[in-house]
Specification:
InterPro entries: PG_bind_dom_phiBT1-type (IPR047763). This is Peptidoglycan-binding protein. The protein has a two-stranded antiparallel sheet. Strands 2-3 form a two-stranded antiparallel ribbon. A hairpin with a 2-residue loop joins strand 2 and strand 3. The N terminus is likely disordered. It has 6 helices and 4 strands; from the N terminus they run βββααβαααα. Helix content is 27%, strand content 6%. The protein folds into 2 domains: 85 residues, no CATH class; 82 residues, no CATH class. The chain has 196 residues and is mainly alpha-helical.
Amino acid sequence: MQVKGTFRVSDQLLDSPPRESARLVNGKAFARLIDTPCEGWADLHAWISSWGVPDVWPMGRPTSLSRNTCPADKWRTHGGWYAHAHVPENDHVDPGSWPAFASQPTDPSSAERQFEPFPGASFFQAGRKSPAIEGMHRRLVAEHCDRYTSHAGLDVWGAGDVRSYTAWQQKLGFVGNAADGVPGRFSWDRLEVPKV
């Protein structure tokens, strides 16, 4: 299991043999991981969530032992959970299945109504004017990532936004080119810009 955000974790933590057709739990064989009692899943999920990894499967929740390699651009820009079958340059197909997130909202559209959806990296161009940029500005200040030299033109994308957003990306654990000041979906979603 690959978890992308601030770190990765292996599915071997759940003691599931990755290349066997059955999982043994207390002497009982199960064809799929999801059919096992999944003891420890709640603790593992809580621990990973404490690192800020979002409860999303950018390539879809695994349901079978098959390859579905993640495109490189998505791998670099989308945080969340990835099966070995999704990881670029990997030939594993495990875990085959995975239990649901216990904390998944019953109404996924409620989060979409509360926060501004990610407008795409190309949206953030010098001089772009938008209430979403003002909302982002206010959230960056609230998150102590204020690297602005002025608070005029809050709704216009500029150099202060790039500096402040770089600070936000670094706060999330991004380094090097990954902290370039241009919002990506993962960092944008974590910022929780109020819907405008």
